[in-house]
Amino acid sequence: MVTEDAQRHVIENGAVAIQGDRIIEVGPRATIDAKYGATNRAINRLDQPTAILAPGLINTHTHAAMSLFRGVADDLKLQDWLEKYIFPAEAKNVDREFVRWGTRLGLLEMALSGTTAFADMYYFEETVAEETKNAGMRGVLGQTVIGFPAPDYKTPEAALAGAEKFIRAYADDPLIVPAVAPHAIYTTSDETLQAARTLADRYGKPLIIHLAETKAEFDEAVQKRKKSPTRALSDLGVLQGWTLAAHAVWLDPADFGLLRAAGTGISHCPSSNMKLASGVAPVLKMLQAGIPVGLGTDGVAGSNNDVDMFEEMDLAAKLQKVTLGDPTALPADQAFAMATIMGAQALGMSKEIGSLEAGKRADIISIRLDAPNAAPLYNVYSQLVYSLKASDVGEVMVNGRIIVRNRKMLTIDDKAVMAKAEEYRAKVAKSLSGN
Ligand SMILES: [Zn+2]
Questions:
Q1: Is residue 43 domain-shared with residue 84, that is, in the same domain?
Q2: What is the 90 CA–ligand 1 centroid distance (Å)?
Q3: What is the strand order of the sheet 115-122 is part of?
Q4: Based on the domain organization, do 123 and 21 belong to the same domain?
Q5: Same-domain pairing of 106 and 28
Q6: Number of domains into which the chain is organized
Q7: How far is the CA of 224 from the centre of ligand 1 (A)?
Q8: Buried b / exposed e across 102-126, counting CB within 10 Å, b at 16+?
Q9: How far is the CA of 247 from the centre of ligand 1 (A)?
């Protein structure tokens, strides 16, 4: 069992005792059995003798509903990809039902690959929340606010009002943390960005944003404002408060101190940054500066084509090594921490999730060790990051409830989702055929 507690305890033949939605004790199986197991026949047991028990993986940046656009357009420049494919495809296809089915597909893929919590930003976010809650998953869900007419709201003012309504509806939910998500500095006016900050603070909820993703974004800010995107957002007061920012690829030396001082959590998305050739985020420098950095997949419509956190761990470690010319950079144990406890820190939720410790929510996964790629096992972190696969995940528990058992999702009708995905493929392809 890998705990990811402060001492990074790894317990051989470990066990977790759970009551309701929380972990009550973690320790050697003999101890836990003696205390809770043998005497209580009413107890619910889940025995996995040949598996690793670990905290659920945390995907700190995605757009779950975009699952229905998987592979719609690949290997393009970001601007072409957005303007010729994604924006038209969204304008013609994205409505509430699209978001519902796309989210279901995303949730199914995430849960089966060991993700228990995810941060999302998209449209019709109340529908994302409804589906997430129905599936029994945990989500930090941001209603998008953007400076042009969107599928759900036609103006930023309407989007902000919608975000407020959404935040109020989910203010005290055990699984959903509602958030406001201004898209980025280059798509949203300064006034709207500041209004989003005010809204988040009024309800004590997070603000989610894309930050310094591309060189173009960085250069535009320098040209128009004579400062980096991070400095510009900081000067506007947008980063001050509970904030989760995705990417942070293009940072000035002074930006590290700004992010650290603001307490901004960063989502590092290696697949997306590589596929869109955005650049390489200075992950080690951010960590050295004391900035919490988690891992994210980004959306699957072209910036990544899946929501597999096992791949992100592996790529995060290797991307730093090859970039820095240093095979010791970002070792496996650190990459695994980024997918769990550090992801929880980036979300501002490390008191509740991210590790197996008494008092935390019971978000736990089992990773089977019966496949050839799992044997032999010398080092558990090496195995988790470099050789185990999403398909090795056996069981998934979120908030004390088992939602995946024996590699089968219990809370979503997978056949219906797959059939709908095919229906939407035909519809989306048709809508783009004029391009
Ligand atoms: Zn994104």
A1: no
A2: 15
A3: 57-62, 115-122, 138-145, 176-182, 207-211, 243-247, 265-268, 293-295
A4: no
A5: no
A6: 2
A7: 23
A8: bbbbbbbbbbbbbbbbbbbbbbbbb
A9: 8
Helices 414-432 and 96-112: angle between axes, nearest 10 degrees: 130
Strands (E), 273-388: 293-295, 364-368
Which residues are within 8 A (CB) of 71 and not within 5 positions of it... i.e. 6 or more apart?
A: 302, 305
DSSP element (H, E) containing 336: helix 332-339
CATH code assigned at 65: 3.20.20.140
Q: Which of 311, 309, 299 is nearest to 65 (CA)?
A: 299
Beta-strand ranges (E) seen in 191-306 are 207-211, 243-247, 265-268, 293-295
Q: What are 383's two structure tokens?
A: 């195995």
Tell whether 44 and 65 lie within a shared domain. Answer: no
Q: For residues 125 and 159, is the Cβ–Cβ distance under 8 A?
A: no
134 burial type by CB count under 10 A (0-12 exposed, 13-18 middle, 19+ buried): middle
Separation CA 373–CA 218 (nearest Å): 41
Rounded Cα distance between 427 and 188, Å, is: 30
pLDDT tens digits for range 333-358: 999 999 999 999 999 999 999 999 99
- The C-alpha angle 163, 93, 270, rounded to 5 degrees, equals 70
In a domain, 415, yes or no: no
φ, ψ dihedrals at 250, nearest 5°: -105, 95
Chain length of the chain: 435
Contacts (Cβ under 8 Å, ≥6 apart) of 340: 4, 54, 55, 56, 57, 58, 354, 355
Per-residue pLDDT tens for 86-140?
888 898 999 999 999 999 999 999 999 999 999 999 999 999 999 999 999 999 9
> For residue 399, what are the domain limits?
14-55+361-409
Percentage above 90 pLDDT, the chain? 89
Residues 56 and 45: their CA atoms lie apart, in Å, by: 19
**If you measure from the C-alpha of residue 366 to the centroid of ligand 1, how many angstroms do you get, rounded to a whole number?**
28
State the distance from the centre of ligand 1 to the C-alpha of 246, rounded, in angstroms.
Answer: 7
Gap from CA of 351 to ligand 1 centroid (Å): 26
Bridge partner residues of 55 (DSSP): 364
Beta partners for 210?
184, 246
